[in-house]
Amino acid sequence: MTVRSPFTRSVVVLTLAAMAIGHLAGCASDSSAANQQSETQAERVPQANANAQTSPTDTDGGDRHEVSAKELLLDRQDLDRLNQTLLEQYESSELASTWAQQTDSGNRPLLIFAPFANETDAPVGASIDAIVMKLETQLVNRPESGVISPENASELVAVAFQQEPDSELDALALFGKQAKADYVVTGRVSSDAKPEPPTRRVTYTVQMYVLDVDTKAIVHETTTTVTKPN
After folding, report:
1. Degrees to nearest 5, angle at CA 18 with 12 and 22
2. CATH code, domain with 98
3. Could you say which residues form the signal peptide (predicted)?
4. How many CB atoms are closer than 10 A to CB 226?
5. Do residue 113 and residue 222 come from a single domain?
6. Is the Cα dihedral 191, 209, 163, 147 positive or negative?
7. Among 16-25, 124-133, 196-205, 209-218, which stretch is predicted with the lowest mean pLDDT?
8. Is the N or C terminus of the chain more exposed, i.e. has fewer CB atoms within 10 Å?
9. Which H or E run includes 184?
10. What is this structure's pTM?
11. Are the C-beta atoms of residues 57 and 197 closer than 8 Å to each other?
């Protein structure tokens, strides 16, 4: 039989108490860590959802951009670029050289502009008119041709189409003859749209051609395009 002294019993009691306190502290630490981990995960879920809502991407992996209707219209820079391309293609054409030779021989050709047709669904009529007016002004200032500019050109064109409703070329030639012009400069604007948001795109195609009034033949044709948004 082993006899333990009061001192020994005290040491044993203190040791057992210390072990119990250590065990409880460890449990509290594990519980606190688990709670912190749960809270962190709970915070991450709403943040991930928020990021998914504010940073959507398109099918190409880039940031999605909702294109507004205004961004699909022609602006001043577009008009200047289209006009410059049409003018440069005319200046480098065989027709411009032919007209220069005729002018040198005293047979300067006379031109008249007919409105360009708007074959798009977009409200770009004013932009098309701006292109035509600038082209007309530029050709007025060139030496190889003269330009007739009646104030009622649109009315004259409408009357010609009433008289020749079955043929655009016949109507334009009649319009040119009535104005005593040798050539009619006209054209059209069409569009090819990709309407699905958010990557909507519209490509505008501007075509200008020159009609010989006597032969009703198209003696010059040029085309240029611009894509919106650019």
Report:
1. 145
2. 3.40.50.10610
3. 1-25
4. 18
5. yes
6. positive
7. 16-25
8. N
9. strand 183-194
10. 0.69
11. no
